[in-house]
Each structure stands twice: as C-alpha cells, then as structure tokens.
Amino acid sequence: MSDRVLRPDVAILAAALPPIVLAAVLAAGASGAEKPARQDPADTRAVTIRTVAARTVTAGTVTAPTAPAGPRLADFDLRRGTGFAAPIRMLDRRLARSDVSAVLESSGQSRIAHGCARAAGVPSDSLVLCWDREDSTTRAWVPQGVSSVSDATADEEWGGTALLVSWYARRGIRVSFVNPSRGTYRHVLLVQPVIRGGLATYEDIGVHAGGIAWFGNRLYVADTRAGLREFDMSHIYDLARSRAGSAAGGQVGLYGGKYHARGYRYVMPQTGNWHYTSGLAPVDRCRGTGPLRTSWVSIDRTGGRRPVLAAGEYCGAKRPLGRVVTWPLREGWGLGGSGSLARASWAATLPDDKIQGGVRTNGYWWFSRNRDSGSRSRRGQLLLTYRTRAGWADVLHRAASYGPEDLSCFRGQNRIWTVSEHAGKRALWGTPAEPCA
C-alpha cells in the first residue's frame, strides 16, 4: 500500500497541474480500496500520479501527518430537542405556507450578476455566480454555508440546479435560494418561533450559520456551540400572500398585528434542533476533546452507500487541530432516523488548521482552508486527501478564492461548490472535481 500513497515530490508536481488535468489524473490513477480499522468507513483510495511534464515546479507545502489518537465518538452523539410544534401550529393558522419551488420561481428576485471572479480570486476553470452590488459589498451580512439539490436528493431532480447559501448578521441569519437556470436568487429569513403573551411570533437566530446541509425536506444549520438547528423546507411562510403578514419594515416578528421579517417576503421557522449529549462546546476556543465546535457541515451521497452528514470545526493556527465527524442519514427521516438520538459513526482529527469547510466524495476528502490572518490579502486553499490506516495520506494543496467557506459536492456537475465571504471579494463558485460524481 505504501508505494501507492502520494509521495511529497509527486504531490508537489500534481499541485502545480491545471486543476482539471489534476482531477482527471486522480480519477485515472485511483485504484484499490482499503477499509481502515476504526477509520473513515468510506472506501479510501490509493493514488498514483504519473509524471505528465518535466519542468521546474514551485508549489505550496505538502504535509503527511501521522495518525493521532482518534477522537472519542461519544463526544459527538446528538439528541433531538423538544421542537417548536406549539408556536408553529399557531403561525400556520395566520400565515400562508409556501415551498422551495415557489420561492425559486417567485417574482421580484435579485439578479445573478457577472464579473466578480477576478476580485474574488476564483480559479479560472470554475463556474462563477455573482451577487448583486448590494450583497457583494455589504458588511452587515456575510455568506458562509453552501448546499444544493444534489445534497437534497439522490437523483438531483428537485429544484433544478438550485443552490443554497447561508449568511449571518449581528442579529439574524438568512438563506439565499439561488436559481442559476433563471439567473436569480432570493433571500429567506430564518427565525425561531416563540409564544409571547399567548400569541405566536418569531425572533432572530443568533448563530454563525457557518455550514448548511439540505437533505430531503430538512435543512440543517450549524450551531457552533450546541450542534445543529433543523428547518423544514416545505414549511416556508409567504408574508406577501398572508393577510396577517407584511413584506415591508425592518421589524422581526409580530408588530401592530402584522408579521414582519426585515422586509423579506419569505420566512422559514426553525422546526427542531440537535444538541450534543456531552454539553455545549467552548465559546471561542478549540479543546480537541468534548463536543464539537460545529463550524461547517456537508453531505456525502457518493459511492452508492448510505448518505452521511459530516461536520467539522474551525481551529486557528495554535494547536489542537480541529476534528471532523460523520453521522448516518436515513432517506425520508434525516438525522437520527425515527429516533431521538443520532450516534456518530466516525471521527478524526483534521489534517490542517483553519479549515472552513469539508466534504467527502467517493472516499476523498476535500477541505477549504483560510490562510488569511486578518489582512484579507491571501487567497485560500482547497485541500485534497484521503484516509489510510496510518491516518491522512499526503495532502494536495491548490489555490482557491479569498475566504473560501463551506463545501458541497454537486454530483451531476462533477464540481465542488463554495462561497467566498469577504466584502468586495465575494463569489459563489464551483470547481471541477472528478471524484465528486
């Protein structure tokens, strides 16, 4: 097995290849599959890169860390919360319900723009979607999480080529429903329903929303300290069609007998939550043990296996490194199946620091890494590796955009999608990735 693992000298050459060539070579050179003991349960791929050019190469760092002691799986078990059935029943009687298709096809949407790739530092072989001027430059809202219809369904036939992007603000989170086929997108405000004074209303959600994962009718949103928040994609309120609703004004919730959502037409109430049984994660630091600081999430539907939800934590340059964990998903049910407990199926320490997103595809792991220390002047990186019995194999690094965030595999496109977060350097983009299939 060892003679098939990427050697550092070969990996450096590979890192300098055009990405689309590298993806093809990786696919052609992949052979054999090994199931490591208590490692990633997906088939791991041994890779050989053939020399395709004789030239001097300048490339970034290539690392091949040895396997540390594995994280304790029990630290990542999740328990379903009590939910919000009572206020949602009351809201249902006053507000018109809508769904994903209606949001994607609604009138009055923002237009997808063009010309942002250079400013965002997007690799040249990528598909690029740009926000309008306001969303490209605002510092009030910051994009973070990415998911798509490819995560939602096995056949990718719900919502066309729809993509979702989460944003956080000082008070609140929203999700952009992006419809590339129409060249439009619309923001939907995510809220937490409550009962006050015997009346149902809702309020802002104050989390970072660093990752999202769309699975069937469920949308999972990363809650950094607690675990995950769950939303029902078939349970969206259309305030413009509701006699008790208003799509105007800056309020959130029930004011003057009308329901508001900061001027947005659509609002999606939280329907559930999943909390770590081991308690809350630390506020502002990584410990390397205990509950995960849930920074990002993704879904793996590749390889013909049962789909899984993956999550990881962003940790800075100081040790310990962050961790990554997976849980099984059940079609029609999602996390935990019909029960109230979701047990982690696999976990490992991440191969590098400052990991902003990650996704597994056919045994390969892709990670986005932020190299910036605050100046916003350095482009991020995409990392490609896989698991062996000894830990992570050699890691290939390639340049990404500035501030790359959450990752999602769009299987029908053979592309990994991400979003760049910095104001004035924003883009939603997908790069060729042959193992994403």
From TrEMBL:
Signal peptide range in chain numbering: 1-23
Organism: Actinomadura fibrosa
Name of the protein in question: Secreted protein
Keywords, ordered alphabetically: Signal
Record bears the keyword Signal: yes
SUPFAM superfamilies found in the cross-reference section: Thermostable phytase (3-phytase) (SSF50956)
